[in-house]
Structure formats: structure tokens, C-alpha cells
């Protein structure tokens, strides 16, 4: 069996969820991200996957080794992987046997799918009354669309997110990443943490239901409330801001940069000390942000033309000296390989048993001045099946071999029964 543990000096770091165990029955994005957040905080997260194909995302993105991809690796660090055929009575029985050892179950089966397998909330609660059970679906589980599958792109369209993204006059545009899935995973993790806190006080478990559509609506944020106040869709501004001017991406003589002039004082400095045009700020049409927003159609072309006459580094130096938020627009690879990312330890290269090495994002959380470490690299398919089942259930090796021969599970260090 390959060892996917990452070598990290955690020192005296106290993990908030140390001692908590999570059974992650989910796949694709939102559910696995929820599990990854809990794992980052120190929970032992055991990911249950199909014995042959594993998580769907093991076949999405660019291949890393035999069973991982870049997509899969982005949301499965710090977990262990075991394989179980949940369509088999023996696989479900192993989940039942594991349940007393776990505090949280996360899944994103289709509506009614968990119940059909015998893994619904009531069935598991009967075996572990203080269980925290988090299920993630596409739509309201008690509504007329409960049975509809949830897909990020569909939800981005139906929630209005695509309608607020992109440039005015252009077609609706999806976000570059699966934003609804990502936010749903984060919201789900927050709900689990709240339920764990409540259980510490009361001893009671909880059923948590998360819907992608609900979270997609939440992501519309202030744009959504603008729409309600206006009674129509607000205008799209692309990289610009709907109410702060000048604010957005501009082209200098040698490349793009971001300039975010947030206050009237900053605008005064921008005109006098950055673009050297005090007459602009002295014009009453641009004296306040309310006026600048009202007169953006005359101000922005003038500012855009001025910025094109300066080298980017000159502008950035002047902007920084004035305390005006600014930055270069970097390519993705350029950002990931930047000194800022390196110094922050945000992307780490870990050994891999097949690929030799692979890049893994580090957790974004810092506690007591220390970034939470990568304790386990994203696991190869079923790498922890033998160790986890022997440690928690004391299953002897001959029984594990028999289960593998019947296709209930797979053991990476033993030949397949197929």
C-alpha cells in the first residue's frame, strides 16, 4: 500500500477537530469540499468510494498517477480513502459497523438514494442517536424539484449568477470555477461545525440539509438585493464596480493592472499624484464618488486614456505610495509560481508513488500564526481500506480478502478478485 501521508512538522499545533471522525460518502465537488474543510481542521475524514471507479472526479481534469486527477486532488487532501460497494448488503453493513466510531456523515446522493440503500438519516440515527448527518442536494428536499439532479452550471443559470457575470451587452457568463459547488461545500462545513458545537452542549445530533440552489441564491449577494430594489436586473459592469468609480482593470502601456479607488481622498491623490491631473478632481462632476458614478461615462474614458500613457510599474509604485489598492493582473500559472504564493506556502509539492511528485493546495487557515498542514496527500483509490477497517473494526486479513473476492471492496496491496 502506498503511504500518502504528507510530512509536516505540526509542532504543538492544536487541531480544533482532533478526535472527530467524518464518514464522507459524497463525490464530485460540494460534499468532498465540505469533508476537506473538516479534515483540514483535524478531523479524521474517511472517504468511501466505489471499488472500481471511485469518485467521479478521479476521471476529471488532468491525470496524476493511476487514480488521481488535478480535479480530484483539489478537494480531497487530508483524507483517507476506503472502497465499499454500497449497492451490496455487505458494503452497507460495513457502514453500519463503522458508524459508532464516527461523529459526522456527509453525502450527496440523489433524492431518496440514501434511503433506498438503507443509509438515510432515520436509519443511521437509530444506530447512532447523536449523529450529525449532512446531505447535499440540488434543490429543496421537500419541494417539487427535490428529485432533480443538481449541477453547478445549471444552478448558476437558474439562480441568476450567470446574468450578473460578464460585460454589459454580452451573453450571460458562467464563473471560471464551480462557484456554487464551492460555496455549498463551505456553507455545509459551517453547518456541520455549528452542529458539532451544539452537540457538545446538548449531546444531540442533527440533520443538516443543503441545496445548491439555495446557496446559489446566497452568492448573488448585494447584486440580488439591488435587483429587488430596482425591480429588474441591475446592469453588468464586467471588471468594473457598479457603484465605485474608478474601480476595475485598466491597461497601462505595458500590461493590465487593477486600480480600486475607494474613497474621495484616494481619488484626490490619484488625480494629483498618480496621473498628474488635479483638474479632474477639481471638476465638481467628479468630486464625490456619487457624482463619479453618475458621470462614469465621461470620467472612465478619460481615466482609461491617461493610464495607457504610463508604464505599469510606475503606476503601481505611485498608487502604493498613495495607499490606493492596486495590483498586477497575473496569469494563473504566474500567480501560482509567484514569490507571494511561495512564501505563503499555499502550494506544496508532495511525493507521489506513481507520478513521482504532485502539487497540492495547502489549507488557507492559519491558527495561532501557523498554517494548518497537509497531513495526508489526496489519497489513491482505496489506499486506507485495509488499515482503516482493521483499526476500527478489527477485520482479519482473510475476511478482507474474501470481501475483495466478492467485489465488496478493493485492497491496493492485494490482487483483485476480478
Automatic annotation (TrEMBL):
Keywords: Transferase. InterPro entries: CoA-transferase_III_domain, CoA-Trfase_fam_III, CoA-Trfase_III_dom3_sf, CoA-Trfase_III_dom_1_sf. It comes from the Bacteria. The keyword Transferase applies. One of its GO terms (molecular function) is transferase activity. It is an enzyme of class 2 (transferase). Its EC number is 2.8.3.-. This is CoA transferase.
Amino acid at each position: 500500500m502506498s503511504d500518502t501521508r504528507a510530512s509536516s512538522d505540526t509542532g504543538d499545533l492544536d487541531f480544533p477537530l482532533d478526535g472527530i471522525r467524518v464518514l464522507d460518502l459524497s463525490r464530485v465537488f460540494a460534499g468532498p469540499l465540505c469533508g476537506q474543510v473538516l479534515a483540514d481542521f483535524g478531523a479524521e475524514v474517511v472517504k468511501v468510494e466505489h471499488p472500481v471507479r471511485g469518485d467521479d472526479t478521479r476521471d476529471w481534469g488532468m491525470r496524476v498517477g493511476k487514480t488521481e486527477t488535478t480535479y480530484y486532488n483539489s478537494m480531497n487532501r487530508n483524507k483517507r480513502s476506503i472502497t465499499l460497494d454500497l449497492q451490496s448488503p455487505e458494503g452497507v453493513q460495513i457502514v453500519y459497523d463503522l458508524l459508532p466510531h464516527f461523529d459526522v456523515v456527509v453525502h450527496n446522493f440523489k433524492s431518496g438514494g440514501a434511503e433506498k440503500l438503507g443509509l438515510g438519516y432515520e436509519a443511521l440515527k437509530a444506530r447512532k442517536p447523536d449523529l450529525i448527518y449532512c446531505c447535499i442536494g440540488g434543490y429543496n428536499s421537500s419541494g417539487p424539484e427535490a428529485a432533480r439532479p443538481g449541477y453547478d452550471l445549471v444552478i448558476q443559470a437558474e439562480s441568476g449568477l450567470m446574468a450578473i457575470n460578464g460585460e454589459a451587452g454580452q451573453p450571460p457568463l458562467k464563473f471560471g470555477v464551480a462557484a456554487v459547488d464551492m460555496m455549498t461545500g463551505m456553507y455545509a462545513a459551517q453547518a456541520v461545525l455549528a452542529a458539532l458545537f451544539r452537540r457538545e452542549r446538548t449531546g444531540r445530533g442533527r440533520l443538516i440539509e443543503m441545496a445548491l440552489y439555495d446557496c446559489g441564491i446566497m452568492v448573488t449577494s448585494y447584486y440580488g438585493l439591488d435587483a429587488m430594489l430596482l425591480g429588474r436586473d441591475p446592469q453588468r459592469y464586467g471588471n468594473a464596480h457598479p457603484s465605485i468609480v474608478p474601480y476595475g482593470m485598466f491597461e497601462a502601456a505595458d500590461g493590465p493592472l487593477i486600480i480600486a479607488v475607494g474613497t474621495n481622498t484616494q481619488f484626490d491623490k490619484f488625480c494629483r499624484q498618480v496621473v498628474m491631473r488635479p483638474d479632474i478632481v477639481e471638476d465638481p462632476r467628479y468630486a464625490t464618488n456619487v457624482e463619479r458614478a453618475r458621470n462614469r461615462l465621461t470620467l472612465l474614458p478619460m481615466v482609461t486614456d491617461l493610464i495607457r500613457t504610463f508604464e505599469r510599474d510606475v503606476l503601481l509604485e505611485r498608487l502604493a505610495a498613495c495607499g490606493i489598492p492596486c495590483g498586477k493582473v497575473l496569469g494563473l500559472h504566474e500567480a501560482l509560481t509567484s514569490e507571494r504564493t511561495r512564501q505563503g506556502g499555499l502550494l506544496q509539492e508532495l511525493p507521489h508513488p506513481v507520478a513521482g511528485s504532485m502539487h497540492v493546495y495547502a489549507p488557507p487557515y492559519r491558527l495561532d500564526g501557523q498554517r494548518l498542514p497537509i497531513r495526508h496527500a489526496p489519497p489513491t483509490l482505496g489506499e486506507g481500506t485495509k488499515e482503516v477497517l482493521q483499526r476500527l473494526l478489527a477485520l482479519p486479513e482473510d475476511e478482507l480478502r474474501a470481501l475483495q473476492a466478492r467485489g465488496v471492496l478493493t485492497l491496493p496491496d492485494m490482487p483483485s478478485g476480478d
